[in-house]
């Protein structure tokens, strides 16, 4: 074969190349730097990131580290962890990295196949084993299982083959109200999955939950469903369980009310954690 012809011709439509000129062009088009570089630090981890999976944010990193420090699981009393809306897998992977080996077995669920693929890749990058099922997980290591699933589906728990109850449920769900979503900069809207951002679903209602129109407009749809799954559907331990929900600016009181309405007397204590910029960012409920 002629050596000169063995080279593939370059076309304008080929996959993005990583030379400096292309990278600058992509940045000038508004693409976030993390997608161009393909990585984002998250605590001591360096996670792979790829369009359209949400780039992990510093406020999420901050509360995940705080959560890891506030619980002290041990191999004698390992925690069963469920992360709903897992994206890159950042939250459970950081917990698994920070806790002692054998003290946590995490599952992360997401509706996006891109996210689940990336979460599995990130587990490998971070050295966290991915067992085929909870039955085959090594007891001496922290493990992570990424699962494709739609938490709005009426039979979500069975479809995703979850094995409740969990000791710890974490979630950073989509929470941006539509009115705010419409005003987001193109560098976010054009690159990150709408399903990762918009606190709404195509379904008019969420299964088993009363959803006032006002809460829909405030981007609180996912909190209704998560609280219902955790309490009425028994995903969270009824005693000694912890539910940790990241919330948007101004949503902490609404989410606290949703938890109180769903859990009733089962909830022992609810705390609000601030983010480093002074915003009420996380609702932590203990049963
Ligand atoms: C705000 S992102 C959070 C991602 C990651 N946990 C983080 O903190 O960077 C929300 C995630 O929820 C997922 N999601 C949206 N609707 C969902 C659904 N119905 N069921 C499961 N996951 C869903 C999106 O694909 C997205 O990855």
* Strand/helix succession: HHEEHEHEHEHEHHHHHEHEE
CATH class: Alpha Beta
C-alpha termini separation: 70 Å
Largest sheet data:
7 strands, mixed
The residue-averaged pLDDT reads: 92
Helical stretch tally: 12
**Content of β-strand:** 15-25%
Protein name: Release factor glutamine methyltransferase N-terminal domain-containing protein
GO molecular function: protein methyltransferase activity
GO cellular component, one term: mitochondrion
Pfam family, one: PrmC_N
Compact overview of the structure:
Residues 18-38 form the Release factor glutamine methyltransferase N-terminal domain. The chain has twelve helices and nine strands. The strands form two sheets. Strands 5-4-3-6-7-9-8 form a seven-stranded mixed β-sheet, sandwiched between helices. Strands 1-2 form a two-stranded antiparallel sheet.
Detail the topology: elements first, then pairings.
Layout: H1 20-28, H2 33-37, E1 39-42, E2 45-48, H3 58-70, E3 79-84, H4 90-98, E4 104-110, H5 113-126, E5 143-148, H6 156-159, E6 168-171, H7 178-181, H8 186-189, H9 194-197, H10 213-217, H11 221-230, E7 242-246, H12 252-263, E8 269-274, E9 280-286
Parallel strand pairs: 3-4, 3-6, 4-5, 6-7
Antiparallel strand pairs: 1-2, 7-9, 8-9
The chain binds S-adenosylmethionine.
Residues 54, 56, 60, 85-88, 90-91, 109-112, 115, 150-152, 172-174, 193, 195-196 line the site of S-adenosylmethionine (SAM).
Structure explained in plain terms:
It contains twelve helices and nine strands. It is α/β, with parallel strands linked by helices and 287 residues long. The protein has one domain: Vaccinia Virus protein VP39 (Rossmann fold), CATH 3.40.50.150. Strand 3, helix 4 and strand 4 form a beta-alpha-beta unit. Helix 3 packs parallel to helix 4 (90-98) and helix 11 packs parallel to helix 12. The termini are far apart. Residues 54, 56, 60, 85-88, 90-91, 109-112, 115, 150-152, 172-174, 193, 195-196 line the site of S-adenosylmethionine. GO terms for molecular function: protein methyltransferase activity.
């Amino acid at each position: 074969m002629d050596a000169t012809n063995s080279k593939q011709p370059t076309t304008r439509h080929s996959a993005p190349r990583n030379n400096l000129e292309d990278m600058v062009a992509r940045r000038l088009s508004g693409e976030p730097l993390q997608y161009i570089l393909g990585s984002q630090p998250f605590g001591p981890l360096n996670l792979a990131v790829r369009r359209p999976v949400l780039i992990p944010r510093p406020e999420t990193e901050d509360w995940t580290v705080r959560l890891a420090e506030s619980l002290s699981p041990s191999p004698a009393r390992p925690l069963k962890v469920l992360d709903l809306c897992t994206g890159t897998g950042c939250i459970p992977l950081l917990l698994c990295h920070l806790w002692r080996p054998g003290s946590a077995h995490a599952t992360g669920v997401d509706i996006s196949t891109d996210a689940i693929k990336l979460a599995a890749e990130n587990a490998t990058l971070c050295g966290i084993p991915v067992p085929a099922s909870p039955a085959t997980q090594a007891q001496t290591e922290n493990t992570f299982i990424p699962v494709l699933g739609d938490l709005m589906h009426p039979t979500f728990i069975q479809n995703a083959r979850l094995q409740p109850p969990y000791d710890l449920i974490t979630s950073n769900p989509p929470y941006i109200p539509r009115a705010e979503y419409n005003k987001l900069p193109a560098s976010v809207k054009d690159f990150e999955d709408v399903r990762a951002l918009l606190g709404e679903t195509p379904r008019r209602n969420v299964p088993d939950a009363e959803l006032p129109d006002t809460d829909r407009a405030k981007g609180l749809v996912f909190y209704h469903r998560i609280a219902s799954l955790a309490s009425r559907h028994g995903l969270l331990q009824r005693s000694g369980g912890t539910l940790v929900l990241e919330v948007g600016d101004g949503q902490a009181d609404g989410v606290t009310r949703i938890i109180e309405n769903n859990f009733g007397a089962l909830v022992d204590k609810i705390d609000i954690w601030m983010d480093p910029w002074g915003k009420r960012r996380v609702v932590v409920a203990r049963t």
